[in-house]
């Protein structure tokens, strides 16, 4: 028995580590989870809401699960064994998260046969063993895609839609009724365009821009009117809330809404009349907001532009008369609008310097695929995702619309995208890290402006070092979430901020569209206000959770493909930079953004100095240092890479030990 010293009781969500025999309990509002050793989880599985006792054991904090408050709606992967002569079977789990196999009654097999790999959802925990039902048959073990399908299925994001949802879709068409036209402002004659990635299909937003005689800018941000189709409490609505978000994986998209809506009826495709909510924003000649309004509208996008094309047009690389990827040619009117848009973007950015806004510049991974001989996708190469200047243009315009809408409807029940200010103890810790790296900057108020100044200061340094110091700054900040209460957005330096511009792929946007339309149509009565006061906190919590799950799945699928790509390169040497340190070793990021682990058994990690001392070479390494590594393992079970250091590039620093 362990000899514990009692400390306190916590309530949070348990998450089990796939590789180790332990897990963590995450408590809302606390950045660091509480460690739980396997035999102290009391049957808890990932996603369970638990009550636990926190204790000190040998100077270290651990949690012991005392009660499972609410079971997670998880999907488990395993092999089914049908009992001959009986009308039932058992699912033997791939990972032993439960102490017993899952019982499956005959009526819940749904066509699964002996030795099938299946996904199972628990329907009862009350018997001697949990009882479940088959939700998907993945196939046999020799199926090449079964591991990837398992990862996706375990996340809880299901591909495909129910019969009821599909039935609701049948009544929708692209015709706009006379009544609908009568109640909307017709903007179909206004030059309008979308700017997205080349492979984007769900086009949420479009923009138009004018300049007034007095020098004011008139910016129109048109957003797909999704709730015109997705009615409250319909099967579509319930399914969208359950998903919470679209999930953008390396090889596919799991949409929040069926393709008939996301890629067709709601998507602002060119040369087609579309129903929209327009946020019309007036800014002065310095890019400062003067006033805004929101109304229901009809638009017809003239151009489906890509980020790359816009950069080429604005820079002069793509000239008048040049062909565009999705049809049309560059003409004087389009050229003028794009230059006007870029002019306004620069002024908006300049106006923000006073209040400050946090601009991180992290690298993202892009996986390029090719078709293999058996028709499956194979990784061709892994590269750093290329960002264009026009990415920033759209980002600034969407932020302006999000802020304007949030401010205008703040006196009604609403959903906000909040980002609270960092805790003082985290700022103090960051200050110590800055001192270690020789960065001469002192926080006074630790507000948005000061963090923005810090990011600008470090941005002038070595690129590799900058990326890792930015990571340390990001860890100091709280995580942005959805809330029915407004606490402002620290990172953007705004008092009001909501997500309004992506209702095709985010449920919070869809929800506030519903509130906005009710207010515009004078149906936001006392009963609805009371209803929203009750349901918005639930929606905020649900969608924040789903967003976190989606991000985790995106990383898992990315790592799945990366590891299989590098499996054929074991023994090769690579150059990279140290991207992280823990007592057990180092993380190294390669030039293509791939990250792997270096075992630290031959060294010592100094947490105070944030450096690793190699006991064999006697050399010290720090975050951002260049190193040369050899790939020694590509583990397809944990989807991780393992490197060995073969050459160390040391920094020149007065902290170097002699």
Summarize the structure.
With 658 residues, the chain is an alpha+beta fold. The chain contains 13 helices and 31 strands.
Describe this structure in words.
There is one protein chain. This protein is of the alpha+beta class. It folds into 5 domains: 5-70, Beta Barrel (OB fold (Dihydrolipoamide Acetyltransferase, E2P)), CATH 2.40.50.140; 75-154, OB fold (Dihydrolipoamide Acetyltransferase, E2P); 182-415 and 491-556, no CATH class; 421-477; 570-648, OB fold (Dihydrolipoamide Acetyltransferase, E2P), CATH 2.40.50.140. The chain is built from 13 helices and 31 strands. The strands form 9 sheets. It has a 5-stranded antiparallel sheet, with no helix packed on it. The protein has a 5-stranded mixed β-barrel with strand order 6-7-8-10-9. A 5-stranded mixed sheet has the order 11-18-17-14-13.
Average pLDDT, rounded to a whole number, is 91
Low-confidence stretches: 649-658
Largest sheet: 5 strands, antiparallel
What class, by secondary structure content?
Answer: alpha+beta
Keywords:
658 residues, alpha+beta, OB fold (Dihydrolipoamide Acetyltransferase, E2P), 5 domains, five-stranded mixed barrel, 31 strands, globular
């Amino acid at each position: 028995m362990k000899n514990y010293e009692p400390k306190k009781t916590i309530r949070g969500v348990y998450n089990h580590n796939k590789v180790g025999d332990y897990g963590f309990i995450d408590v809302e509002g606390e950045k660091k989870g509480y460690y739980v050793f396997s035999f102290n989880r009391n049957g808890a599985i990932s996603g369970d809401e638990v009550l636990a006792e926190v204790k000190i054991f040998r100077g270290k904090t651990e949690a012991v699960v005392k009660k499972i408050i609410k079971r997670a709606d998880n999907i488990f992967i395993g092999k089914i064994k049908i009992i001959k002569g009986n009308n039932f079977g058992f699912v033997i789990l791939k990972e032993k998260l439960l102490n017993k196999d899952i019982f499956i009654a005959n009526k819940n097999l749904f066509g699964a046969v002996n030795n099938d790999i299946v996904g199972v959802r628990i329907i009862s925990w009350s018997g001697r063993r949990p009882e479940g039902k088959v939700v998907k048959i993945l196939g046999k073990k020799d199926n090449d895609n079964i591991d990837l399908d398992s990862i996706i299925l375990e996340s809880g994001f299901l591909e495909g839609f129910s019969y009821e949802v599909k039935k609701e879709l049948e009544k929708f068409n692209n015709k706009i009724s006379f009544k609908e036209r009568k109640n909307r402002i017709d903007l179909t004659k206004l030059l309008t365009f979308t700017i997205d990635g080349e492979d984007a299909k769900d086009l949420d937003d479009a923009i138009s821009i004018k300049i007034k005689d007095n020098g004011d800018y008139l910016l129109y941000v048109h957003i797909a009117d999704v709730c015109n189709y997705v009615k409250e409490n319909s099967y579509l609505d319930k399914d969208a809330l359950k998903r919470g978000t679209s999930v953008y994986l390396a090889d596919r998209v799991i949409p929040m809404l069926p393709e008939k809506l996301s890629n067709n009826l709601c998507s602002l495709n060119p040369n087609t009349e579309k129903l929209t909510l327009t946020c019309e924003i007036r800014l002065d000649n310095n890019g400062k907001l003067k006033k805004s309004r929101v109304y229901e509208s009809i638009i017809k996008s003239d151009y489906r532009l890509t980020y790359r094309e816009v950069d080429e047009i604005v820079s002069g690389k793509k000239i008048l008369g040049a062909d565009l990827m999705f049809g049309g040619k560059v003409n004087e009117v389009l050229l003028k609008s794009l230059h006007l848009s870029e002019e306004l973007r620069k002024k908006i950015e300049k106006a923000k310097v006073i209040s400050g806004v946090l601009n991180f510049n992290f690298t993202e991974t892009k996986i390029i695929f090719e078709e293999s001989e058996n028709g499956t996708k194979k990784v061709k190469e892994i590269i750093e995702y290329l960002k264009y200047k026009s990415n920033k243009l759209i980002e600034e315009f969407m932020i302006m619309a999000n802020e304007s809408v949030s401010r205008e409807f703040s006196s009604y029940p609403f959903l906000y995208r909040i980002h609270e200010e960092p805790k003082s103890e985290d700022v103090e810790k960051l200050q110590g890290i800055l001192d270690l790296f020789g960065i001469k900057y002192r926080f006074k108020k630790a507000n948005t402006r000061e963090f923005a100044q810090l990011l600008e200061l470090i941005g002038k340094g070595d690129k590799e070092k900058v990326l890792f110091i930015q990571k340390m700054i990001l860890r100091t900040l709280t995580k942005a979430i959805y809330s029915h209460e407004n606490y402002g957005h620290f990172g953007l330096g705004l008092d009001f901020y909501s997500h309004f511009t992506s209702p095709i792929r985010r449920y919070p946007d869809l929800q506030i569209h519903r509130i906005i339309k009710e207010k515009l149509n004078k149906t936001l009565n006392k009963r609805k206000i009371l209803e929203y006061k009750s349901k918005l906190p639930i929606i905020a919590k649900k969608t924040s959770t789903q967003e976190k799950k989606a991000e985790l799945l995106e990383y898992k699928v990315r790592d799945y493909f990366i590891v299989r790509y590098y499996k054929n390169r074991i023994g090769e040497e690579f150059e990279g930079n140290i991207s992280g340190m823990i007592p057990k070793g180092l993380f190294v990021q390669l030039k293509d953004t791939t990250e792997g682990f270096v075992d630290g058994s031959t060294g010592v990690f100094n947490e105070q100095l944030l450096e690793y001392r190699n006991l064999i070479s006697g050399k010290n390494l720090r975050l951002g240092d260049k190193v040369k590594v050899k790939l020694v393992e590509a583990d397809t079970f944990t989807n991780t890479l393992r490197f060995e250091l073969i050459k160390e590039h040391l920094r020149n620093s007065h902290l170097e030990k002699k």
